[in-house]
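Exercise 7. Predict the joint structure of the components listed below.
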Amino acid sequence: MSIQDYLEYVIIPILVLSELLVFIRFIKGPSVIDRVVALDLIVTIGIGIISIYSIITSRSNFLDIAMILALIAFLGTVAFSYYLEKRNKND
Amino acid sequence: MTNFFIILLSTAGALFSLLAAIGIIRMPDTYLRISVNTKAATLGVGLMLGSAAVFFQEFSVTTRVQAIIIFILLTAPVGAHLIGRTSYFTGNKLWKGSVIDDLKGKYDLKSHELKSDNADGKKKRRTKDSKQADF
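Solution:
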């Protein structure tokens, strides 16, 4: 059993299961803030999936996309919190 | 030996990500969910990126992995603070088992400014807090 098989049949299912659990919170979340946090966590676990996938296919180019995703997740959280607070302030 | 380290790091990272997912679905409060997000997920993703660095063993990949890890470590607390502040202003209640609310009465809800406690006539609560802060 090579290391690619181990990653593909053990690690990736664990990560997919955790993505599904976070997605339940994303659907269910009582307030908007919970959904924003769940979206942030989905993107963060997606970075982990990309890094594992780059080991499986042995291509290091995917790590660039992981970097871009980390940046977009931070920008999304900042933008959501800024506009939600602003909306609350104007009321 | 390299394979052992890759398996160790990736397994630990995946388990931490799973713990973060279970935590975000089981925690009773928005603030506790924010805490789970910013702690466990950062460590899990860092370990998985470290396994990628061990696998490739190239200078370019290792620097890229270091850049991603440092970026996540810098931005996760900032994002968590911003979203927690917004959640406090939006009016999310704390969990009923939470012991203390340190920010109670310190935020001006109109101007969104943070004021210190001893600004005007709250010396009673101040002395009670200082007794707690002794140990």
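Discussion. The radius of gyration of chain A is 16 Å.
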